[in-house]
Amino acid sequence: MIRAAVMRQPGLPLEIEDVELEKPRAGELSVRIEAAGVCHSDYHYMKGDITCPLPIVLGHEGAGIVEELGPDTSGAIAVGSRVAFMWRPRCGKCAACVSGNPVLCASGRLQATTGGLLDGTSRLRLGGQKLHHFLGVSCFAERVVVSERSVVPVPDGVPAEIAAITGCAVVTGVGAVLNVVERAAGRPIVIFGAGGVGLCSVMGARLIGADPIVAIDIDEDKLQLARRFGATHTVNAGSGDAVEQVKAIAPAGVDWAIEAIGQPATMRQAFESLAPAGTVIALGLARVGATFEVPINPLVQGQKRIVGSLYGSANPLIDLPKIFGLYLSGRLPLDDLVGERFTLEAVNEAYARLVAGGLGRSVLVP
User: Are residues 7 and 126 in the same domain?
Assistant: First the structure.
């Protein structure tokens, strides 16, 4: 038996329950959780903005220590290994994987729609009833069973909290800059939203030499943190028109606008901030069906682009070790990104703090 945070239906608090966890099957691992990130994506499901099979154990951003191997594992991961989770596994065989776009792997869609692991079945039970896995991870728990294709080794020297948040927030924000933004040295970039993902985008922009780097939010504390991470300018969207403030910094507009919030209004502002031939990179999720309007003539006449970036458009087996290396070399100040620490039992308090505007990326420590 393990303790885990169960969502029975949207709109209700998560319940900490005693849950049965089966042993790992072929190609799977049992992992003891050391840390789990408090991500806004889970909150979309908690509110009902996005649906998933219920009941379910939430949590997709985490890290831990391998305690048991199922049969027929590859040998790449051993008992005692420290690992971070990938909520987008890589099968290596589907069209997305073969074409070099593994974040769109068919296995990820299978796990999301079935609430199971790679074979579509669950290892979780509650009172004899099946519980579902969240994105193949479900790390709001003391232990998990996951596919070995859903983990990446964590090197010595990387704390559990850093390993956990790197598996989602960091690779999403830093990865979007490293993998989507091109030829940005000395060119202006704006990041809408200074939450965990937005702050990671700021760090990525500093890594590649973008200038100026403009961070936008309505929270002055978050904007101060953005400056610490490399923003050369900050804009408080609550103190005036955000687009006008951006144009005061970059009169011709910006070449790259990253939207890390997932709101129609900020998506439109990001588009309006662009210079000719500029690109909006959308990172933030929204409720199902959310849309925003794009003026056709400026889109065409300015040759502007709007692109989505899931999971930082990363190749996680390559990019996660790269990010760990940048952290260990002092190039990514991820220690300053970790916010408050909560126990598993305080998961609802952690999400209340997130909604209220908590700084950085909070973590659960079971």
Answer: yes
